[in-house]
Every structure is written in structure tokens, then in C-alpha cells.
Design a protein that fits this description.
Helix content: 55-70%
Number of domains: 2
Distance between the termini: 54 Å
Oligomer: single chain
Shape: elongated
Radius of gyration: 22 Å
Length: about 170
């Protein structure tokens, strides 16, 4: 196999697997399915089913499982690339589009997953978005005032980068 094809397959597989557990999942499935429909239409339904299966596996998987899934897709992509030289251009285009989607998700903060358990008389407060319920700009006095009004304890670290409170 050509080393260039191996690099393309590896990079594409990593991008696909990394996006499987994000909100971009539907676009990943659509674009990868369309790639197979263009070059191996008889395999497209199986590929899409496998993407669904892997999506369930990757959610909550540890690093070893994610790596195994990535290698599985790298192998599939490499075989597709080796069978038809036109796949290189199309796969490169698809991966560029998926990376733009990924960059957009990261710019917006990406996925947020929170989990908490309160017991006894305790209270759990979880905040998404920028990580603080105090309106920006944040100062130490703003945090203390908010905490007192909300009956919360104040941590000495503000979640905003460059915040004067921390």
C-alpha cells in the first residue's frame, strides 16, 4: 500500500471516530454513507448500519476501544482508497468538510456532559455555557455577592479565562 493512502485513511478514520460522539454525528453518517454510495453502492447500507453500531459503542468508550474503532475504520477506508484512485479526492473533500464542522463545534464549546448526585441536604447546581452564572465581566465581589444571594460557597477560581476574580 502507498504510504500516502495510509496517512489519508488514518487521518480520515480519526476524524470520523472523533465526531461520532458529537452533535455532528448525523452529518458524519450522511457524508460517509454518501462516499460509499458513490464508490461501493452495494456496501453503503452495511456501512451505515456499522456506523450506527459503532456510534453506540463509542459513546462512553475508553481510549482503547476508541483506538480499536478508529483502526477498524482506517482499514475500511484504506481498502476503499486502494480500490479506486478517485476516492482520494472525494474522501479528502469529505474529511475537510467534517473538520470544519468539528472546528465550529469546538468554537461553540463542543458537547457538554454533566453528571452529579446530591445526597442528604446537599444541592447540586450545574451550569453550561461559559461556566458561570455571574454576568460578565466577572469580579471577585460579583462572585461573592452571587454566592451569598444563592447560598453557595465561593471557589477562588473563576471559570473564565482572564477573569479578575481568580
Amino acid at each position: 500500500m502507498d504510504a500516502e493512502l495510509a496517512v489519508i485513511a488514518s487521518s480520515a478514520a480519526t476524524t470520523i471516530v472523533n465526531l461520532m460522539a458529537t452533535d455532528a454525528w448525523g452529518q458524519v453518517k450522511h457524508k460517509v454513507g454518501a462516499l460509499w454510495r458513490s464508490f461501493r453502492p452495494e456496501q453503503a447500507d452495511v456501512v451505515e448500519s456499522d456506523l450506527d453500531r459503532v456510534r453506540l459503542e463509542i459513546t462512553g468508550a475508553d481510549e482503547a476501544i476508541a483506538l480499536a474503532i478508529s483502526r477498524e475504520w482506517e482499514s475500511r477506508l484504506l481498502r476503499l482508497l486502494a480500490a479506486d484512485s478517485a476516492v482520494v479526492v472525494e474522501l479528502s473533500r469529505v474529511i475537510a468538510e467534517l473538520r470544519q464542522i468539528s472546528a465550529g463545534a469546538q468554537a461553540r464549546g463542543g458537547d457538554v456532559r454533566q453528571s452529579a448526585k446530591a445526597s442528604g441536604q446537599s444541592t447540586v447546581i450545574q451550569i453550561g455555557g461559559d461556566g458561570c452564572a455571574v454576568p460578565k465581566p466577572c469580579s471577585w465581589s460579583d462572585l461573592v455577592l452571587y454566592a451569598r444571594r444563592s447560598c453557595l460557597s465561593v471557589l477562588s477560581i473563576c471559570p473564565w479565562s482572564g477573569c479578575s476574580a481568580g
